[in-house]
Structures are given as C-alpha cells and as structure tokens.
Task: structure prediction
Amino acid sequence: MNFKYSIRRKAIWIVGLLMILLIIGVGCSRSDQKQQVILADQFGLAYAPLEIMRHEGYLEREIADANLDLEVVWKKLPNTAAMREAMLANELDFGFVGIPPFLIGKDKGMDWRIVMGLSQSPLGLVAPQGMTSLSEMRPDQRILLPQPGSIQHILLSMYAEKTIGDAKAFDSQLVSMSHPDGQTAMMNDNSENLHFTSPPYLNNELKQSDLELLVDGETCFGGPFTFIVGICPERVYENTALYTAFSNALSKSIDFMNASPELAYQILLENYTEADLEALPEMIYTSDIKGLDQFVTFMHQQELIESDLDEEALIWH
Amino acid sequence: MALNTGTKKGGQIKIKILLLLLICLIWEMVARSHLYPEALFPTIEAIFINLIHNDSVFTAIFFSLFQAVMALCASTVCVLGMLVLSKRFTICHELFDLLYTLLSPIPSVAILPLVILWFGLSPNAIFFLMLHATIWPLWIQLELCQKRLTSQFYELENAYPIPLSKRLYKIYFLGSVPDLIVGLQNGFNRGWRAIISIEMIFGLVGTHMGIGWFIYEKRMLMDTVSVYGGILGIMLCGILIDQLLFNTLKKHLSVRWGIDKL
Result:
C-alpha cells in the first residue's frame, strides 16, 4: 500500500516538473534562430504603400545601410487582435492597424505607440436601396463589420450617437465578418444586411443597383481621420538603428505612392485586380495622423477605454 | 467489497483534487512571476473575481445553452418521426441510413458557409446547424435501440395481442429511455461544441449574445481576463451538465432498469 502511494506521489511530482519545464520551454523556443524583423499588415488598399516597400525592397536596403544583420519577414494577419497577440508573444515587430484597436491595446497596458500614419480612406455603411436612416433598421437586420472595437464599429457608434443618441443602439445587431465574406453576404442576401466596409469592397458593393451608401466615414466622424497607422512596441523603438531604418523605408514608400501613382498602379496590379484598383485615386497616403484626440475622447466617453490617453504618450518621437 | 470500492474512489478523488491544486499552483506561480505579460497570463484570483462580478458571462452561457437545448428538443421530435417512418417504409429506413452515413461525419462549422448562402444571416441558419449537430447521434442511438427492442420482443408481440398504446409505452418508450439518455448526452455534447464554434467564427447571433461571441468580443477588446472567465464558464457548464446531470441520470437508470453497462 505504502509502496503504491509513493509511486503515485512520485508521479505527481514528475507531472508537475514536466509542466513547469514545458511552460518555461515555450517562452525560450525562438532563441536560436537567425535574427528577424517581422512586419504584418492586413488586406485592403489602405496598406498599398507596404506593397511598394516589399516590391522595391526599401526596408532591406535601409537595414543594410544601417549595418544590421536582419532578415525581413512579412506576415498577413486577419485582424488586429491577432496582431496584438503576436506582438505580445514577441513574434511581431512592426504592425499596421486602425486607430481604435491600437487605443484599446494601449489602454490595456501594451507598450506600443504609433510610428507614423499610413493612409486615409473612404469608409462607408452600405445599406439596401431606399433606406435613408439608421432609425429605419428592423430588429432582424444585421450590420456586418470586421470586429467589435474596429474603426468601423467606432464610426458606427459615433453615427448612432449623433442620430439616435445611443452609441450602443446597434451593438446587438452586429455580425463580425471579414470584408470579403461580408461582400459575399451582401451580394446574396442584400435586403437584410448593412455592411460597414472600405475600398475595394465598398466600391464593388456600390456597383450593385440595389445597394447604396447610407453614410460615409467622414460624416460619422465629423471630418477627415487617419485610417491605418504603423505601430511598434518599446523594445523595437529602443533599437534606434532598426526603428530609423523602418521609418525611413515607410516614408519612402508613402512618397513613392504620391510621386509616381502610375508606377505604383503597375506594382499593385500584381496583387489586386483592375476593378479593385478603381478606388485608388480616392485613397490618401500620408504620414500625418488626424483625429487621434477625437477617437480617444469618444472611446473614453463610451468606456471602451478606461484612461484618457494623452496624445504625447501615443506617438514615438 | 463495496467498502473497498468506496475507499478506492475516495482516493481517486483525493488525487484529482491534489492534481487540480497543483495545476492551479503552477499557474499562479507563472502568473505572479511576470514571466509573461499580465494580458497573457492573469492570476486565478483575477479570473474568478471577473467571473463572479461579470454576470454577462452567465447570461451568455444560458443563451447558448438555451439554443443547444432547443435544438436537442427539435432533434428528438424529428428522430421520433424518422423512426416511425423507417419502421413503416423500408425505403425511408434506407434513406435515413444513407443520410446518416453521408452527413454525420461533417462538423457543423464545415457547412456554415453553405448554410449562410441558403438561409442568410438569420437565427434560422444557427438553428439548422444545431439541428444537424444534434440529430445524428440521437438517430443512431435510438435506431439501434429500436432494432434491439424489436428482436427482443418480436415473439412476445406476436404471441399476445398487446394493445398498441400499451406496446408503445411499455415496450418501446420504457425500453428506449436509457438509450434516449445516451443519445441526448451525445447530441448535447456535439451541439454544445458546435454552437460555441459557430458563434466564435461568425458571431452569428440573434438579439442576445452567446458565450462564443462573448469570448470573441472580449478577445477583440483585449479583455483577456474575461476570455479566461468565459472559458472557465464553458468548462463548469460542461462538467455540470455532462458529468452531473447525464451521468447521475444514467447511474440512477442503470439501477432502475438493471442495466450495468450504459
């Protein structure tokens, strides 16, 4: 009997030790690989300068000029949450996200800040024809958008507050869907759904005769705003050589988009169709950041973020 | 003998509790060592406090549970209809058998894109998927049971003129209760997992928020503690229903019906 128990006790200790080793091991698994700099973006025309950066090899050149021995790795991530999690796990150095998800992460204690702005984009809420206001929404209708806390969700809340007086009025009617899936749903079931989306999906949907734009992003926001910003955590910022190389490469890519739009168009054709690129002239690529304060104020009011973040603490200088 | 099994069982439970405490201890040590950011590894205390204070977890669980139970009820009615049909018409039996073979291996999430095309983004779509998830385990269990009962009582039924109502109640209903419980348990297990995955992937809900959507939303808002709270909620709910409700029922029935192995 005693013998049996001592075996059991040993087994418990061994299981415990194994678990500790496993947990520690997971954290150390990447240490022996070649040094990498990992960048991630998402789908859509708002990320076009990054295609240029990739195609022209700007970052690789800047890194070589700074005498850094780093391999550049690009990743496509489906949403900002994945980007946040990758950055927390030290699997991502530079990311590109909308301002609201960035603020949510910052508020929850992530040590990331904005490197620079990337793009402004026309956004819009597409609705079945004949609908003139959100107050006409039936309870069985759904609003499709990428995810709760996304820029589309915040803009919708801003518009709901302006028109109905309740920012959370439509929160129970949201369906979380990627832009391409949302587009498919709109094409098939267009009398039931509304879709808050961005180019090229916005333009594709508006070509359908029974869909029309209910409200655009700037009307919701009350002025122009930056759609996507480039961000990095403190550990990357402290690596001054890498940080400078990246911000130089990004500035060059944005300048390229503005200086030679025809060349940029040709490069983008490798990954987009001509129909997708019809919306390109409406996009604005600039490193300026617009509307940051207004997002902070609104999200603070709506208790989506707890602290009233100061603009100085949001941007690397 | 009975005493011996009792002590053995008591010992097993003790070891399980000890192991659980050990897991909690390791978790707490890692959480407090700040080896990982707090957003990845919150303390157990924070998770429990969040679970207790955040009653929306329970509303969400009840909503998902309600949907799973509704689908299970609908499936039971459907399966009973299918059984009657398959007993009457051989062609129906062959059809249901074929459908079972073809459809039962498909997880609900796999046909989700198709169902959205058929039904749109409506509660009907969820209901259809849940029906698909729950109906097949129930069907196979009850169909086997029907076959067994027919072969067991075939001669009795032929030898004595038992009225239909009595035959249905005494032989088929009472005889199938244990299988019904097992079928319901399997159906519930599949349905419960299906509803959570569907909600997490598409956030396709009615006017209320289910537990899958709850976890998804909290992940997007980077509320990791609530995500852990939601997962803990699912775990507790699963234990409560699967282990306590169904297993107790089965244990009770195995004494009542004199069946040892269920």
Chain B has nine helices and no strands. The two ends of chain B are 22 Å apart (CA to CA). Chain B has two domains: 1-41, 44-256.
